[in-house]
Amino acid sequence: MDISEKEQERFHFRLIPPEQIRGGVVCFLLIMLIPLLVTLAAPMLSPYLYSAAILYAVMLGWGVVISVNPYRYEAVFTLYMGIYGAALAVTSEIAILKMMYDIARVESPWYGASSVILMAAAGLLFGLLHIRAVRRGTYQEMERKGLNRAGKAALLLASIGYLAYYLATAFFGELGSMVLGMAGFSVLLIFGLYVAVVFIHRYLFIRRNMDKLRALYPALGLPKEEREAAYMRARNEAQATAKRHRQSKKRRRS
Description:
Layout lengths: L4 H8 L5 H21 L8 H22 L7 H28 L5 H28 L1 H8 L3 H24 L6 H30 L1 H7 L7 H30 L1
């Protein structure tokens, strides 16, 4: 049974606090650096390096802009996380292809094509499962009871599926000792796809309901100083209202 729109709003309107954005940008860019470094292997000046470097440069430049003024880009950071997840998945796929063709010296184009198709299929499947989970309140249920059996099974099957794919290609093909390395990058790829699906869907929901979000967070987009001033004004007004209410009650009793 689908949950109400109010419950969906509570799920999607969970913004990452501005105080945590700078640290998040640094942490996630360091993770993305791992597959990028693989593309530096000989031959270094290859399309794999250029493609991965362009993606990293885009995420780095955008991350710097957001980090300079995280309070202004609090909502936009949700989109940044979604695009980052997609970029991490693609960069991990590029690293896998680099290991296949430049390090393991695979010649058949089928391995690369099947790997890309598998990534696209996994992204589509994650998207469908995520939208269904949001509408049915599965995430809220998981928060109350922990990761349920279905969630554990989905993550386990995704990991086993990728590992089985590379084991099969190693057994029947030319990949050999590269399997463990590519399986490791497949974990980053799966993580990136999941982050992309969750945060892009969340940002699209936010864009459709920006008025409701601003009503919930009136200080959204304001600088830190103005937020603190607005918070102090709201607190003082609440205290003054409470004081007037207490005085009014005393007068009625007397």
